Every structure is written in C-alpha cells, then in structure tokens.
Amino acid sequence: MKEQEIQSIIERQRRYFASGATLPVSARLDTLRRLGEAMTAYQDRVQEALRADLGKCALEGFMCETGLSLSELRYVARHLRGWARDRRVPTPLTNFAARSFVRPMPYGVALIMSPWNYPYLLSVEPLIDALAAGNTVVLKPSAYAPASSAVLQEMLSSALPPELCAVVTGGREENQSLLRERFDCIFFTGSQAVGREVLRRAAEHLTPVTLELGGKSPVIVDRSANLPLAARRIVFGKYLNCGQTCVAPDYVLCERAVRDELVRCLAAEIERQIGPKPFENPEYGRMVNEKHFRRVLGLIDPAKTVYGGQSSPETLQIAPTLLAGVSFDDAVMGQEIFGPVLPVLDIEQAGDAIAIVNQGQKPLALYVFTSDRATAKRITTECAFGGGCINDTIIHLATSAMGFGGVGESGMGAYHGKTGFDAFSHRKSIVDKKTWIDLNMRYRPYSRLGEAMIRRFLK
Predict the structure, then answer these.
(1) Residue 197 near residue 179, CB atoms below 8 Å
(2) Which homologous superfamily is 218-405 in?
C-alpha cells in the first residue's frame, strides 16, 4: 500500500472520530455486535488461514485464537456501560461546593501492530478493547502470516467501515510508512528490537504506546513439586504453537535433587501429548518460516540433547527437544528461544532462582512449581516479571478479568478486559464547581482568616 493511501485512511478516520460518531456507548456496543457476528461467521476461514501460516490444528486454533477472542468480546460488551461511566471521586473541602469525577475518553485514531505467532488473537483482542474505548483503528497484521492477514482484512471490511477500522497489509515498507504518521495511541506486539523502533518513532509525536514484547520466561521447579503434573503442564505450555508463544516457558531452573526425574517426566509427557513421531502428528505445528527454522536449529547443542533434536527442512518442523546440563554460556540461553527447545538448568534450591531471574532482563512471564506456599509467595513477590502462574503455565493470559502485559524489557502497559479499555482511554479529571456559593478565602487580598481556613482544610 502506498504512503498516500495510508495517509488518506488516517485522515478519513480522524474526520470520523472528530464527528463524535464513536463516543456514544450504544454506537460502540453496536460496533462490537457487528464485529462479533463477523468473528463467528469467519471462524472456519480463520482456522484454514492459521493452518496455512503455522500448521495449527483446529482445536488449538479455537482454544488459543478464535474462541479466546470471542470470550474477550463477550466480556467487554457485558461490562462496557459500567466502564464508560463517569467515576465519582471525593472532593476536598478547599473545593467546596463541587462534584469531582473522572471521565474515560478515547484517544482518537489508534494504530495496532500485531505479530505472526498468534496472528488472529493478537490482532482482534486489542482491536476489541480499542473499539470499546471509542477509538478508530488502523490495524497492521504481520506479513509473516499472509493467509491470516488476508482473512482479517476481509472479515473486518465486511463488518466495519474503513473510517472506523481499516487493515493495512504489507511488510517493512508499510510498517515504516505507518510509523512516520501521527497517531493518538499505538499498540505494538512483537520483538524487543522492533519495539524499540516503535517507541522511538512514537516519541517524535509524543504518542502514548503500549508495548507487548517477549523475553526468556523461566520455570522454577523445586523438590516438593508434583513432578508428573508439572511436566504435563510445562510440556503443554512450551510446545503449544511449536514453542512460538511469547509467554511460553523458555527455560527451566530445577533443583538438582529432582532434575533427572523431571527430565524423565518431561520426555514421557512429550510422547504422551505429541507422540514419538511428531512430524506425523497433524496436531503438531511448524516454524513460521525458514529463517526462524534455521535460527532455532542453531540453538540446539547435540551434546546436551537428551530428547528430540530431529528436524524436517521440507516441512519446517523441529521435534520437541529437551536439553540438560545447560549453562548460561550456551547459545540457547543467549536469546529468547521462540521454538520447541527447552533447556533445563540446575539450581541447588528454589530460592537461588530469584537472583538468577533478577540479574537478567525482566521476563514477560514466570512459572513456579512447588507444594510449598511460602516458596511460591517468595518467588512471585521477589522476582520481577510481567505475569505468571503457580503450578501451571500460560493460562494467566486467558482471563479477561486480569490485565496482561510486561515490565521493563518485556513491555510496558497491559490489556484484556477493563485493563484493555483503560489502555485505549484517557481519563479526564473534572471538577464541577457549584455557583450557589463562592468562598473568597482563595482570592486576593489574602486575609488572616482565609489563611487559617486554608491551612485547616489542607491538613
């Protein structure tokens, strides 16, 4: 798409927003209704696209993309009227007589840039939140998921006018063109490297930004954990979408006393959930492209591979792989893996993991498996991370009642449900001062009585 076309879309959306058409809650609810109808009608088409782009099976596509998005839409629509109301706050005596309140208002024209690993979910969920808050939206899906991008464009154009929601497809050139424009807010999901570029471009216009990035999300396992169950849940979270999940367990810090048993349980669970011949399993996906396939293969040290390690260049598949005896000097620990490779590192006790986690970049997620509540509380309190689970993986992002986001290098801001509504809203603080009385203590010339009253009221 040419730069002039992008500018025309933004100008058209800016005029539409200025008309006030998106402000009534009834209009926003109608938008969500039409969007929901299209999301329901296009479920099969979306699934075909997810299979084409990433090899996702039907249940995984519904569980992690289309179904989760519909759940978010229903939750937002159910609560929107309450979120959009003015919120009354206390008024200090110095402002007597008055009423103070906070009014959420949309930013205006929002840019949403989504990634390729969950091309539908990570486009539609922030879109729902942005539209609910009353914004117009320009959506830029990833060029690495072309089938999903095409379906998104068709689905959204069938439900919503371009002055309210427009999809811009294409690659780096379109991304650069969009970032040269002025938006009222930007929502980006992707890598840290691109996130830095988005933030730098946004700073030129002082545009507020929400960044959902990644990082090396640790799993901590102590000797009190239920190891077979821990392995089952770790394998589910790690190898979902072939490891291409921003909150996937990136590596395991396991107490040495139970390391060997955990590795045995992990290998048994891989065979149970995926099978001994993963490339013949139609429910097992693939890497998104050859570039990422080669990158992940380069992280596998054959000398430290205790399970898996096979690959299929023809299908861009890498078998679920376990590495043991790994140290932080290994290549696999030098970057976010974002693939089906799980290194297991030894620690003496679970408390040692706190310093290890905190000395690196703040991860997007953290998971701890333990039967000791004090250990769980200490780790989740003292470690810095975006969000996570105790005795499970990944599921914390599946509830609209909690915000989802990173901290530090793993992102800034959050979304989902009310938190998502707030992410796309500016909260105006307003004082409605009454006219039936006017205390003159604040006016010049100041008096002793007025000073005494002010000092008393401000105690």
Answers:
(1) yes
(2) Aldehyde Dehydrogenase; Chain A, domain 2 (3.40.309.10)
The answer to whether 212 is a known catalytic residue is yes
Active-site pick, 64, 165, 246, 265: 246
CATH of domain 3-213+408-427: 3.40.605.10
The residue annotated as part of the active site, out of 125, 174, 212, 336, is 212
**Secondary element (H or E) of residue 111:** strand 109-113
Do the two domains 3-213+408-427 and 218-405 of this chain adopt the same fold? no
In a 10 Å sphere around its CB, with 0-12 CB exposed, 13-18 middle and 19+ buried, how is residue 332 labelled?
buried
Distance CA 310, CA 314 (A): 13
Query: What would the mean pLDDT of 125-130 be, rounded to a whole number?
Result: 98
Give yes or no for residue 342 having a pLDDT over 90.
yes
pLDDT digits (tens, 9 = 90+) for 174-215: 999 999 999 999 999 999 999 999 999 999 999 999 999 989
Left, alpha or beta for 21 (phi > 0: left; psi -120 to 50: alpha)?
alpha
The question of whether 65 is a catalytic residue gets the answer: no
| Rounded distance between C-alpha atoms, residue 119 and residue 90, angstroms | 44
Q: Where are the domains of the chain?
A: 3-213+408-427, 218-405
Average pLDDT of every residue of the chain? 96
C-alpha span between 363 and 247 (Å, rounded): 9
pLDDT of residue 40: 98
- Tens of pLDDT, residue by residue over 143-167, are 999 999 999 999 999 999 999 999 9
